[in-house]
Amino acid sequence: MSKLNRRSFIGTGVVGAIAAGTGIGCADDQTIQTASAETNASTGSPFSYPVGFQSYGMRREIGEDFVGTLKQVRALGYDSVEMCSPHNPHYQEVGFGGLTNTPPEDIKKMIEDTGLVCESSHFGSNEVLKSDPAKTADFAAAMGLKYLVMSGSGIGNDGTIDDFKRWGEKCNKAAEIVEASGVLLGYHNHRIAPMMEDGKPQYEHIMEVLDPRIIMQFQFASIRDGFDLAFYLDKYAGRFKSLHMHDFDPAMKRENHEGRIGQIVPLGEGIVDWAACIKAAQKSDLAEQAYIVEIETNEPLEGLRRSIDYLKTVQV
C-alpha cells in the first residue's frame, strides 16, 4: 500500500479501524489524526538535525553485545543513544542487566567511545517516586546525562483524576531533588488515552498537574489511539524537550494478537504527517538531541536504517 493511500485512509476510517482493533475511541474531533499528502508537500529544507535512537528497541541486541550494537547504529548515521536504567528490574530482565554493576562513568565512556553521545535515559517511576530519587539522580549525573526521563506514571488505566493529582505532587517534589544533582527530571507519556471520568484524555490531566519545570518527551506512538499528534504538540508548545518517534500502519495485522490490527513501522511507512509534527514540535525549545527514533520490530537495525534514511528527506 502506498503512503498516499495510507494517508488517504485517515479520512475514511482509520479511527474506526483503530477503535475496533484496540477498544479505544475518540472523545471529539480534535483527537482525529488529519494527516494529508498535501500537508507533507512542504517547500522547506530537508531535515538536517541530529538523530538519536532509543535503546529499548535494540534491547535484545544490547543484551548480547552492548558496544558492538552501538557501533552498528552509529554506522547508520545516528548521533546519540537514549539509554534505559540498568537498575530498573524490568530493564534488567529484557537486556540491560549486563550493565547493572557497571559504574555510570564507565557506561558513559563505553558510549562515547562508539562515537555516540547520551544526554537522556529512561528510568522507571519506582526509581524516581518510590526508591531514593537522589540516588537515581546521582547515577544519572555520573553518566553525564542532562535529562532523567521517567517512563510512564506507574498508574494503571483505571487511575482517577485524584490519583493523578497526588502523583503530580510527588513528581513535582522529586523534580527539586533531581535538579540538586544537576539533572532535569522529564516525563515520557506512553499514550494520550484513556479518557478520564470528565471526558478528557489522561494526558491533558498529566500536563495540568506537572510543574512546567518537568520537561516533556512526546510519544508518537500515541497515534495508534487515533489522536492528532500535531494538535498536542501545538497545544502544549513550549513544554517539550524531545520526541519519541514511531510511525504506525493501522491496516497491518498485529503479530501474536489474533483479531487485532495496527503495527509500529519504520518512519515514513505509516500515517504520521512528519512535516506537520516536526513543525509543531519546533515551537518548543527542543534539546540538541531531541529527535529520538524507537523501532520495535523483528529487525530493529533495519528499521532504524529505513527510518533515518526517510527522516533526512522530510521537508521542514
Gross morphology is: globular
Number of strands: 10
The residue-averaged pLDDT reads: 88
Percent of residues in helices comes to 40-55%
Radius of gyration: 19 Å
Strand order of the largest sheet: 1-2-3-4-5-6-7-10
- The level-1 CATH class: Alpha Beta
Written account of the structure:
The protein is 40% helix and 16% strand. The chain has 316 residues and is of the alpha/beta class. The chain has a single domain, classed as Divalent-metal-dependent TIM barrel enzymes (TIM Barrel, Alpha-Beta Barrel). It has an 8-stranded parallel β-barrel with strand order 1-2-3-4-5-6-7-10. A two-stranded antiparallel ribbon has the order 8-9. Strand 4 (147-151), helix 9 and strand 5 form a beta-alpha-beta unit. Helix 8 (133-142) crosses helix 9, helix 9 packs across helix 10 and helix 11 (229-235) runs parallel beside helix 12. The longest helix has 20 residues, at 3-22. The relative contact order is 0.17.
In short:
With 316 residues, the protein is an alpha/beta fold. It has helices at 3-22, 37-40, 59-64, 66-75, 89-96, 104-112, 125-130, 133-142, 161-179, 202-209, 229-235, 274-281, 300-311; strands at residues 51-54, 80-84, 120-123, 147-151, 184-188, 215-219, 240-245, 247-253, 261-265, 291-293. α8 packs across α9 (161-179), α9 packs across α10 and α11 (229-235) runs parallel beside α12 (274-281).
Entry keywords:
single chain, 10 strands, 16% strand, alpha/beta, TIM Barrel, 316 residues, eight-stranded parallel β-barrel, globular
